[in-house]
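REQUEST ID: PR-0412
SUBMITTED BY: lab tech R.K.
PRIORITY: routine
TASK: structure prediction, single protein chain
INPUT:
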Amino acid sequence: MSKLVVFSFLGGDLNQGFPVVTAQLWCDNQFVPVKLTGSLPPAPELSELYRRWQLLYAAVYQRLDRSNQRIKVHSQDITNISVNDFDEVCQQLQANINAWLKFESFQNIERQLRTLLSRHDEIRVIIETNIVLLHRLPWHLWHFFEDYPKAELALSNHEYESPQLLQKSPTGKVKILAILGNRVGIDIEKDGSLLQGLTDAKTTFLIEPTRQTLDEYLWNHDWDILFFAGHSNSLADGEIGEICINKTESLTILQLKHALKAAIRRGLKLAIFNSCDGIGLGRNLADLNIPQMIVMREGVPDLIAQEFLKNFLTAFADRKPFYLAVREARERLQGLENEFPCASWLPVICQNPTTVSTTWQELCGNFADTKFVDEVSKKGKIATPKFKLWTVILSTLIVAVSTLGLRYLGIFEKIELQSFDQMLRLRPQEEPDPRLIIVEITEKDIQSQQEMTKGLKSISDNTLAKLLNKLQKYQPRVIGLDIYRDLADPPNKSNLIQLPVELNKDNVVVICKSRDNKYDLQGVKPPKDVPVERQGFTDAIQDRDGIVRRQILMMAQEPSSTCTTPYSFSLQLVARYLSYENIKPKFNEDYVQFGSKVFKRLKFSRSGAYQQGVDLGGNQILINYRNTDYQRVSLNDVLSDKFDRKSLKDKLVIVGVTANTVSDTWSTLYSTAQQDYQEISGVFIQAQMVSQVLSAVLDQRPILWVLPYWGDILWIYGWSVVGSLIIWQMRSLSHKRCAIFVTVVILYGVCAIALLKQGLWLPFIPSAFAVVASGVVVMLIQRRQELFTISNP
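STATUS: complete
OUTPUT:
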């Protein structure tokens, strides 16, 4: 069984310690890893000890004075050193590393890992850090690697992305670009002969090339392996890697950045730098997201470099897993350590954790022909592009169905309504509807009356009769009386104007309130002797959060109700006003039509965000609130002629109470947006309901509507698929996160434009949830597939 362990050293350094160290264990049958957390204490002595080891290492090899060394020795660093001194420092370094890793918090990680690992497991151990010294430390000296003979170490930077790869046709040969650089003082001919001896590889040699030649070969050809032998070193304390390509030119990885990125994109899987001090090279190439590398952590003698290359190529070309081939070749160098101390410390893997650990047969293009892969493929575990796509589609289907299930249960209702309100509030300030004027009965109007009103009446019948008589003189088209008058005042023969007379004018509409067994057992009767044709009910609907977002145009009344009209007050006013425009209404169970404008009802029980336990009975539509105030005049101003008389001609006049002592206030979507929460009087709600119908018919203002239920399903699933496919194409984790964010922003923009321009209320919240959820699922699937392939090369 193959497993992957990734240690991440987060924050801190050897002088301060590492307050957070995480270990992630990826196994074959897991979509997410086992994650363990610990810490490590300060270990400043490791820094000093490793620096001393470096100096002694260079001095020992200087003293050996062998020819053909790839090591550059600075003789002034240290003198008078013996091999015994060097051995002692090596033992101290090993002891200090193991003592440091025995810290109790880190031991908790190790103990848990050991319970989950077997000695027979092939284990890839990756050290993630941006600290150069941690990359240089000989981690293979940790006792863990002695106990697990099939474990091998790799290094990685903290930040990495999956490389963008182009499809290429298999050739049956491993294509190797071998760069034999500056050879002054060293022997690299043996490296070339070892590469030439590979029977199933095609090697192209560039011997001491110019920068232009190297650049052209990287740009214009497909390579599987990049090999370099020659002089190299790490600059700026290991932050920058440099190779000497000929006797006069040295190049950093940054100077080859674009050419190397092109080679990686065209399929470069492995880079081998059989040269000195390659930590800087490994760190810089890791930034370009090359899948994997082999470098030497310090200076390397010719013989050691050649022996490692020979043993590695033999094992790797013999189909041994990459990590095990490196470990075997590295450990075989121990037999030469009498002459070349610490030779087995030098080779190290640098791995991009997002990529698959390559195999020789894969590089040959015969991956699908191997027995091992055939067996795995039969089990459906090879993540081919087609399989991945179907996985994406299936996963998004599951996410979409789950999202629709949550919506069906009403989980999203509250936040959907809030987002609906927020989008509508994006509209700029609108002009007042010029067709409407409100005669408001204020607190001052009530207090100034000389007559005593009866019961809960706001004004007396006599005052109301005077008001209606005065209004009729200025020729309004329709007068709507949004005041309950179910009880008459006692007869008063001194009254010059009688209310029944004024109420019986053809252009006056009065109100009543329905009776139902659940909310209102009584209802409110209309004024006496007013025919049902001029009556309208004022029943209002509040959502669970108390906001009025819907209006009822028509509904059937209970047989015992005192309010018998099937038409709402607002619909009666609109119908009479539009009759002057020769626009006649058409009534249907599912819609109301004026001219070419059709007001379709919200479907019974489930429509838009209303999914669970919402009464959508009757002919209900959404209210498209106008973001403005309305023309208004007070009762006293009308009675005393202190207003523009011409302003009433041909208008639709609504008379209603705005006094605080009369409890008739409601919440709208603009109430919640105000710093001081304010409800508005019912007469203004009626004005909004009337205005939205008139504006839609006469001004082409959008009518708010929703998709049918199957339309919501397709919309949510469609965005789930789109989001998933976008994430599926991204390689970088940061790019995936940005893609999810951008997709949600675009979705919001589309929904807002559709609502404000066309009146279409699209399900933004469920769609955004589906985009995010499906994106996360796809990322987990991709990660699982990548790690499975790493675990089963």
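NOTES: The longest strand covers residues 2-10.
REVIEWED BY: pending
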